[in-house]
């Protein structure tokens, strides 16, 4: 996937996910890391979109942080991490979602749609805390007001 197709905020979240993986001595960056990064973004739209979709964001954040602690750790490395297979699949799904909507760039909310369908730990954790694809799609549609993501600086301005 081309990073230049990601919005600036989504690129920041991906970089933060890498830092979370490094900080936890994880070998791979997984969807859980990216979801954690998005939930921690104070100026991102993920938290507000999830709230608007009816998810319990505070409980989800705690559950994601706890799930991260359960991932395998690798010590004695130089901090090199790579994108895991599950994250590659989720990013590809986010790309498909963006294409379906006619977006020129992939925004964070497209990753959240991928998470809503994810069979792995990130998806299960999000669904356990109230995330449904249908509610998220409605929240995205309401926030976007029919607009597409046409620039790297585009961002949803969701309010709960």
Beta content: under 5%
Number of helices: 8
The proportion of residues forming helix, as a percent range, comes to 55-70%
What's the pLDDT, averaged over the residues?
91
Give the N-terminus to C-terminus distance in angstroms: 31 Å
Query: Which strand order do you get reading across the main beta sheet?
Result: 1-2
Give a short summary of the structure.
With 160 residues, the protein is an all-alpha fold.
Walk me through the structure:
The chain has helices at 8-23, 31-40, 46-52, 57-69, 85-100, 108-117, 121-128, 133-144; strands at residues 28-29, 82-83. It is mostly helical. Residues 156-160 have low confidence and may be disordered. The chain has a two-stranded parallel ribbon.
What attributes characterize this protein structure?
8 helices, single chain, globular, disordered C terminus, 160 residues
Which helices and strands occur, and which strands form pairs?
Layout: H1 8-23, E1 28-29, H2 31-40, H3 46-52, H4 57-69, E2 82-83, H5 85-100, H6 108-117, H7 121-128, H8 133-144
Helix pairs in contact: 1-2, 2-4, 4-7, 5-6, 6-7, 6-8
